[in-house]
Design a protein that fits this description.
- This protein has about 325 residues and is an alpha/beta fold.
- Helices cover about 45% and strands about 15% of the residues.
- It contains twelve helices and 14 strands.
- The chain is globular.
Length: about 325
């Protein structure tokens, strides 16, 4: 439970999750109590609605100074290099994803931060992991640097729980679909780009095969899971940094077919690239029963409801001249 006097810090606030989590937290806890931070300048709406700090998570001193300046007690650590981008620069991915997390945990331990949230990913799994209804506790043998960093991050978070009593929590997110943040370098980003292309151009060239099935989640459910997990009773948690969560699973062709129900003229071509091998190493569906049992997780959106809402919002933005896309 976050107390009225406690300040929240969000790293990676300009990213896909951060750009929507910050406004949500500010609505719940008050604008002044939620400090957004990122290494890049955010959108004016994010910066103008509350405090913002330019922050490089690989710089321990900057983290320490920010926590001390605002007397931060809760950290949502979202700064990360994603899967496809990480494969192009593995060294940078390690520096940000591992050293950045270590800096956050150490600063939190030293300065009395009460809670840390750090998202994990289905990228922790690999080709030898069961791909159907992937269990909570199973083989973690990723083939990407992003997955390697997320496995290490899960273990590091759990270590700080056991060793220092720091309350570290995290979800293994599937692909996240949002109508606010543009694709940011992830393998599941096709499921975001396809909606923009459907609205703007009525056609899309997909970088995955049509039969490629992956677990997904709509952004409102993603935000719900974060807030719900952070508010859960610590004594009920048997897991900490690695909860499986999901909402739906579908193939690229199934998503295209759902969109065509609303836009019959929409056409899709399939030209798989290097991201196909990444997707092939990930699960098709997830068992999130541990999250349901330990903190009551339950999604609100399925494929049909998510598709209808995404198309509605993006069409409204287009009509208003506010739909920004490369």
């Amino acid at each position: 439970m976050i107390l009225e006097s406690e300040t929240i810090l969000v790293t990676g606030a300009s990213g896909q999750i951060g750009s929507e989590l910050v406004p949500t937290l500010r609505r719940i806890y008050g604008e002044a109590r939620v400090v957004a931070s990122d290494i890049v300048q955010p959108e004016s709406s994010l910066k103008d609605s509350g405090p913002f700090e330019k922050l490089d998570v690989t710089n321990r001193q900057e983290i320490t100074e920010t926590i001390q300046k605002y007397q931060v007690k809760i950290v949502y650590h979202l700064a990360a290099i994603l899967s496809a981008t990480g494969e192009k620069n593995p060294q940078k991915a390690w520096e940000v994803n591992i050293n950045g997390l270590y800096n956050i945990l150490e600063a939190s331990r030293e300065l009395g931060v009460k809670q840390v949230f750090c998202p994990s990913s289905i990228a922790v799994f690999g080709p030898v992991t069961p791909r159907i209804n992937t269990p909570q506790d199973t083989i973690l043998c990723p083939t990407t640097i992003y997955g390697v960093t997320k496995v290490a991050g899960e273990h590091l978070g759990d270590y700080y729980v056991r060793k220092y009593g720091l309350d570290v929590r995290g979800c293994r997110f599937p692909g996240i679909i949002s109508h606010e943040a543009l694709p940011g370098g992830g393998t599941t980003d096709y499921a975001v780009a396809i909606f923009y292309e459907a609205i703007l151009r009525k056609k899309y060239t997909c970088f995955l095969k049509p039969e490629t099935r992956l677990p997904m989640m709509y952004m409102p459910d993603c935000l719900k899971s974060i807030i719900q997990l952070m508010g859960a009773d610590f004594s009920r948690l048997k897991h900490h940094s690695n909860f499986n969560v999901t909402a739906m699973s579908f193939s690229a062709a199934e998503l295209a077919a759902e969109i065509k129900k609303h836009l019959p003229e929409f056409q899709v071509e399939y030209q798989p690239d290097f991201r196909q091998s990444i997707a092939d190493s990930w699960p098709e569906s997830i068992d999130d029963s541990a999250a349901k049992e330990e903190w009551g997780w339950q999604p609100d959106y399925d494929l049909a409801r998510m598709t209808e809402d995404m198309l509605r919002v993006l069409q409204e933005k287009k009509n208003q001249g506010k739909l920004m896309y490369p």
